[in-house]
Amino acid sequence: MVLFQMIIRSRPLNGARSVTRKFSSVPFVAPPVNIYNGTSDYTNIDISSGITAGGAGQRRNADPDAVFVVSGANRGIGLGYVRALLERSDGKVVACCRHPEKADTLNAIAEEFGADRVSVLPLDVVDKGSVDRATAEIKSKFGRVDALINNAGVLGGGPGNMGPEKNLAGLNRDFLTWNMEVNVIGPMMLAQGLAPLMAAKKGRKYLDSRQAETVIVNMSARVASISDNVRAGICWHSYRMSKAALNAGTRTMSHELRRQGTWTIALYPGLTDTDLSVPFQKGVKKEMIFPVNFTCERMLNVVDSMDLTHSGGLYDWAGQALPF
User: For residue 247, is it within any domain?
Assistant: First the structure.
């Protein structure tokens, strides 16, 4: 059970006026775990007791020199990750977003925790120059990265301010390209740029002062699972394909990067109460819409409880392995 209190300002996809929704402190009880179609090659991650004691996640969180990089950090789940990381770890958080000067809530968190723990950097994942500048600044200022959370992503908006396609007739070349740019190419390029800073081991020995493996976290979705796509319903061609491609990248990177002590994981957070999900909440039971802090707590518990055998897998908020 999680207690939560937050204010969310939603921005509908159709450009309508933003709506402020306020939730008082009420108990949120996690719903029963999902049942998926298909079989995963990976085993589940046990998060029933919280973070695995003595595991890489706990050791990483206890390191004051650890550096956590979060993209899309100015709102929603990204903003939730920033606060959750600051509260559960002793390390530093690099919070990246396209327009730091407009990120009032993020800047308030940075001021609350101090410049020695939070750095806010401009980053547009579809702009190569922006990615290069951000990675160069992180290298210059910190010289290492212990966790990269590729949270920046899209479901609707973009060219023509479109929503996800309801049928094949609605497929649009520009919208499909934009989904691929934001949801796949951007995260993979950021991972490429930061991977050299994430080398944690040489053979069996940890490098520099690190005492834990590093991790690349890619935010994915249940609808990206091809095996689970067995029911008629929403099409969402661009979103499904882009996140499925990201899953493929997550698994492929795991084979190469494990040699340097870097693990990878793709996460399905469930339907979380953010501005991205507002247009799609109609008809969904209240208990199936997660508050942001619940989602971030669960996702970080999954990451902090994983080991090498889980690297490359797709997991949900309960630690269940999803089929690709």
Answer: yes
